[in-house]
Amino acid sequence: MNRRDALSRVALIFGGTVIGAEAFLSGCKTATKYGASLNFTPDDTAYLNEIAETILPATNTPGAKEAKVGEFMAVYVKDCYEEKDQKIFMEGMAKLDEACNTKNGKSFMECTPEQRHEFLVALDKEAKDYQKSKKEDDPTHYFSLIKQLTLMGFFTSEPGATKALRYVAIPGRYEGCIPYKKGDKAWAT
Amino acid sequence: MAGDTLNINNKAIAQNTFDAIVVGSGISGGWAAKELCEKGLKTLVLERGRYVEHIKDYTDTTKAPWELTHHGEKTVTDINNSPIQSKCYAYNEVSKHFFVNDLEHAYNQVKPFDWIRGDHVGGRSLMWGRQCYRWSDVDFSANAKDGHGVDWPIRYKDIAPWYDYVEPFVGISGSLENLPQLPDGKFLPPMEMNCLEKQVAERIKKNFSDGRTMIIGRTANHTVKVGDRGPCQYRNKCHEGCPFGGYFSSNSATLPAAARTGNMTLRPFSVVQEIIYDKETKKAKGVRIIDSETMQTIEYFAKIVFLNASTLGTAHILLNSVSDVFPEGLGNTSGQVGRNLMDHHYGVGAYGDTDDFADSYFFGRRANGIYIPRFRNINDATMQKDYVRGFGYQGGASRSRIEEIHEGGIGGDYKDSLTEPGKWTFGIGSWGEHLPYYDNKVTLNKDKKDKWGLPTLDIDCEFKENEKAMRKDMMNSAAEMLEKAGLKNIGTYDSAPAPGFCIHEMGTARMGKDPKTSVLDGNNQMHDVKNVFITDGACMASSACQNPSITYMALTARAANHAVDELKKGNL
Asked: What domains can be seen in chain B, in order of their start residue?
C-alpha cells in the first residue's frame, strides 16, 4: 500500500476527502497568515495526546500518546491544513473542552479515562451524525478532523506501524498469496 | 585586435563543438545519449535543470513514514508553490524535489491542462509509471484506417527490432501472451498476481467470448538483476528514486552507459533558447542556451541535433527558433508544429470487493498491477458504433485495513479492530486513446515571459466527442467485468482529469509521409531540416492507449542508428 492508498482509506472511512492532503481542490491560496502564526503550546500538545489516547488507547500494543500523535497533529495542522480548517481545528479544541465541562463539570484533562471515553463516544456519534446530514458546503465537524489526524498520525508512527500493525521496510520479494489467520496484523504500508 | 578576436572566437567555437547535441536527459534523451555515444559520437547532453546523481541524490527514500516531518504528506506551502505538480499521484514529501515549482515555471491554460514536469537530469524517467506496452499494427494503421490525423510512416515491422533492442537493456518484467493487439517483448520474469487477481483473470476469460484477457502489468521494475541494477525490493517507492536501482531511469541506466564511453559531456542548468539554423547549408548548426545560473547565453555546435526536451518543451524550442527561412518556427513549413497535442484520457473505472480469500494475504509491496489490453475496435467482431479506437485497463487487487471502522469509534476494541486487514478489494481504471486534433495546440505567448525571458506556452487542448463516447464504455465495461468476475459492492467513478494529467502528452511535431502535413519523416528526421531528429513524445502521429515511453525509447534507438548511418554516408 502506498501513501495515496493510505489517504484514500482514511477518506473512505470518513466518506470524504482527507483534509489538508487535498486542499488544492479549493484553489490556490496566497497568504496563509493564520498558518504561519499558528502556535501550539506544550499544553495544547499534551491535551491533543490525551484526546488521541482516548480514541486509540494502549492495549496490548502502544497507544496514541506513546506514538506522540499530539505532536504530529500540531505539526500537521500548522503545515498541512488550510486556514479554514486550522480555524475549525483550533476552535474545536476549545469546543471539545467546553462540551466536556458542560457534561462532566470539569475539563477534559481533569476527567478520568472512563469519563473521557464516555464523553468521546458521545462526541464521536454527534460528529458522525453531523457529517452524514451536513450539506456539502457546511464546515467539517471538528472532532472528525481530530479523529482523522489521530488515525493517520498513529498508524504512520513507529509504534503504530511496527507494533499495532506490521511494517517491513525492505520486503525484497512479492508473494501474492500467503496464508492468513484471524488476528494477524495488517501491513502498515 | 581583429586577429586576436578571431582567434579567441575560433577557439571558443572549437571548444563548443561536438559531433552531436542531445537536448534533454529524460527517458528518450537518455537513450539518444547512450546510442550516439556508443557509436563514437562526441555528444553534448543539455539539461535545463539540476544534476541528479543515481542513488546519491535520492534523498530520504530510505526513511520510514515516521522519520519524515509530515509522515510523507505535502504541505500548504508545497501546494501554493506547485498547485499543479502537487496534484500528481507521485508527488509526496520525499519525491517533491523531482517536480518543478509551478510559480517559477509558468504556462498559460487556455483550457485546463495539467503539465506535470521534472526539470533535472533524468527528467520524468525518475518518477515515471514504468508500464511498458508495445504498440501493434492496430495502432500504427489506425490513422490510415479511420482518417483521423495522418498515416504513420512506419508499421510494426519497422519498430519491432528496436523494441527487441531496447527492452533487454531497459529490463521489463512481463508475461508472454501472444496477443495480436499487444505484442510480446523480451521480458524478465513476470511479477505474480495475488489470489483475487488470479480469480478475476480466470473469470474474465471464462465469461467473455471476445478474447479479452487480464495479464500481469509489464513494468520496467527488474524482477532479476539487469547488469548492476536491481533487483526490485518491492518497497513501492519508485517515484522517490530507487537506491537499489530496481527500476529503469536515465539516471540508473542510459546516462551511466553514455558516460562510460567517455564521449558524453552532460551540461545541467542549460535552458535551450533556440536551434540555430544555417540557411547556406540548410541545416541546424547548433543551439543557443541560457545558463540558468549565470543567465549567460552560450552557443554550441554539432553535426546533428536530437530534440528530446519533452513534447511541450520540444514544441517550445521549435516555435522559438525563428529565422528568415522559418518565420513560424524551425521546420514548420507544414504549420503542424505545436499542433495535434494529445494525452490519454483516464481516471474512469470501477471497484468492488469480495468475501473470498479471507484466509489469504500477501507479502511485499508490488509496484505494479494488472493490465487488461484493449478489446474494442481491434477486428471486425469488436467494432463499436459510438467511437473509434480503444482503451485498456490498469488496476489490481489488494487487502487493506478498512471495513471494521464504520461502527464503534472510540477506545481499545476500536483500535484493535483497525489493526487487522479487511476484505480483499479490486479496482480498475481505464486509459483511453485521444485522437489527434489540429486545434489541440500549443503556441508561444510573447506577452508573458518566463524567468529566462523566453515566451511562455499557451496550451489549448481538450477531449472531444470521441473521447466522451469512449469514456461511457470505459466505465460500463469496467463495472460489467467486475460483476462477471463475481465481485460485490461494485461502484464506478469518473474523476474527469484535465488533459495533461495522464502525463502522456504527445504529438506536437508528428511523423508522417508528406512534408506538407507532418514535421518528421519515418526516421524521426525533420522533413525541412535533415540534421534535426525528434524522438520524444512530440513525434507521435497518434496516441494509441498504451503507456508510450517504451515506444519513444525504441524510436530513439532507431533514429540514432539512422542518424549515424547518414553521417557516415556524408548525407548530414
From this structure: 13-131+249-342+441-460+506-568 (3.50.50.60), 177-217+345-432+464-494 (no CATH)
